[in-house]
Amino acid sequence: MTMNFSLKLLLALLAGTALSVAQAPYDLWFLIFPCFGVFYYLYQNLENKRQVFFLTFLFALGYFVVGLSWIGNALLVEGNSYKWAWPLAVVALPALLSLFPALYLTINYILFKENPVLKFIGFCVFLGFSEWVRGYAFTGFPWNLYGYGVASVPTLSQSLSVIGPYGLTLLTIMWGGLFGYLFITGLQYKLQISAIVILSFVATFAYGHQRLDNADVPLNDDVRFHIIQPNIAQEDKWKNEELVNNFERLVSALPIPLSRDKKHIIIWPETAIPPILLNSRAVHQRIETMLGNNAILLTGALTMRPDEVTLETNYYNALLAWAGGSNGVQLYSKSHLVPFGEYIPFQKYIPLPTVTQFSGFKRGSGPQTINIEGYPSFSPLICYEVIFPNNTVNKRAPRPDYILTITNDAWYGDSAGPRQHFAQAGFRAIEQGIPVLRSANTGISGIIDSYGRVIAKLDLLKAGNIDGFLPRAAPQATLYSLYGDLIYLLFSAISLFSCLFFKFKRFS
What we know:
The protein is an alpha/beta fold. It contains 15 helices and 11 strands. It has helices spanning 5-19, 32-44, 49-67, 86-112, 116-134, 154-157, 160-182, 190-213, 234-237, 243-252, 275-278, 281-291, 416-432, 479-483, 486-507; strands at residues 219-229, 263-267, 295-306, 313-323, 329-333, 378-382, 402-407, 436-440, 445-448, 454-458, 464-471. The protein has a 6-stranded mixed beta sheet with strand order 5-4-3-2-1-11, with helices on one face. It has a 5-stranded mixed beta sheet with strand order 6-7-8-9-10, with helices on one face. Strand 4 (313-323) and strand 5 (329-333) form a beta hairpin. Helix 2 (32-44) packs across helix 7 (160-182), helix 3 packs antiparallel against helix 4 and helix 7 runs parallel beside helix 15 (486-507). The radius of gyration is 24 Å and the shape is globular. The model has no long low-confidence stretch (mean pLDDT 92).
């Protein structure tokens, strides 16, 4: 029985929508099998490239609209003048992201439509590559990569240490797509293709099991960490009448006085200190009293500096360190800024303020390893920066002891977004073999070891203090930390060129 194309479109939309709940916070990873299976079955039986484009577009649109619906919450915060843009955030961005898979699977159809085996291999390679492209194109947005759907399974997620999230995404598409491939009648090489795909799943699972079985992670008990989550509502964060109260919530979350038998590192979240408080002597004195002589404070802050040439005020989303009698030393400035949230692309031609209601932040210089004498070294990431897998640490510097990520997820309320954000921080730990410490204004704060296991956390919309020690990094650098996406790209290139070779060999 021939299926009506309109019905195929509806089924593709439903399959993409269902696939979105394989991601955090639901983690129904097994849905990759029916969802990708249905999608590939529909894809295999299409009649022309126009049908391929629209069917793939609707599959991806269902996936992105549901998985990213939380983004619109930032526009609904009290006092935000961009409420009118809510439909653009929840529909236009997913539609833009859906163009990537639609384009690449159309290319696959054009190249391999005559050969079902090559078409399946190309489907996996091209759909996986579309995810890699969206991770880098136009500053990149690698949120909810398909591979993250199975990364909630600890044994499968360990493969991130070798092939990274794009490699795991390719495998995820293969595993799920096989179910659609097997239901197509009259195909050759079903047994061979099935054996290869199943073997890849078993090998990935076995590697993860072996890695975790040998993952004894001792703690560095020389320094005690205090990760503060104040849980300040976004609508109250920048009100002048609330600034002092907000500061007090940060200070009072810490038990005073600190013990003298250890060194201490206190971590406050992104933009915890606004400019007006940075210039307050009373604030400086409170921080100095809190620290004593055996602690440092690492805190997010919004800083301002005049440009040396134009004398215009530059704003920075920064990380500051407070120690001894210092008045806060700016260690790092966020370099991967959020388009339209922290800067306006082509602002010369689009004269609008950002969602944060000012002209925008200046970029920092990129990943770096920070050393403070007597304390563990770290690589800082501010908010959005933690979603970029191949831009986590400075590869030209010595390996840091931990990754520090500070964020403010209060923009998104009680939604999937903060939970997905926290999950991605854990993936960075596995990829680099380095523990991650995370402080959120609200969101989820926590300590994650170098195998992605959560040691301690504070849940969304909870205020408190995580008091703990630093897990040590994995004894050896991971392959992904050394080679990044190269292993994935080489495998994809070899697979694609092999398909092209057999295609043209047939016609030679």
